[in-house]
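Researcher: Please predict.
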Amino acid sequence: MLPETDGASGPDLEGLARRAVAGEARALEQLCRELQDLIYRLALRFSSDPQAAADATQEILILVITHLAEFEGRSKLTTWVYTIASRYLLRSVRGPVELSVAGPEPFADWIDDNLAAESAGGHDEAEYRLLAGEVRLACTYGMLLTLSRPLRLAYLLGDLVGLPDVEGAAALEISRAAFRQRLARARTIMRGIIADRCGLVRAEHPCRCDRQIDSSIAYGILDPRRPVFSTLPGATAPIPAGTLAAAAHELDLATAIAEAYRSGPDYRAPGDVWRALQQACPALTG
């Protein structure tokens, strides 16, 4: 699976931006619809909180709309949007989900201490698959919260979105050298948690998502009656762990870790984001 950069076959976002600035309401609406999902995916990975991500997406889109005339075309429009999004996310209030993650060492210790000796029982096959998938998503998204905010954004933009260092540095308004240093540091931290643990990236590693189901339920991380990630718009079954591990075995560990994230659901912004945006900016969204 390739990084999530926008392809040449996609819509002409820069052209839509020019038409929107010229006063074409339909172009502005199409532009916002094209941007809302990539903003939401970044915000969701940043916060691991769907409601916080939806709220952030709305606010970031409003900032994009109100500052669109300032886009000078010296970079891709998506890079400019990631700059606005990164500024907002870095300054946003830390929510309870983010505050609940103490750091990489406690996170790794929790995984080790709560790994069951065998797979969870007492669930039918469909529920079992759903719960294992929910654990996988909660764990991988939660793991991102072990990174400091600056490192987290560098990792998200560099390894998951797939921006080259020139664009990543521009989005974070830092030098290319600083961006590479942050990305390297983030990879080191992620590697420290996953190395010798996660069966998603190496088949021989001991941790399996289904062996964390019972402990996740016991600690309130997972509610079998109200799964968080598996019910979001765009949620589909992640690539099976065995298939992913087999493919990841051919990759270096840093790439394999990023692949574990990119193989997850291709989330879309909830419909509430668009409805709230229309209420906030009725004259702009038509």
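Model: The chain has a mean pLDDT of 85.
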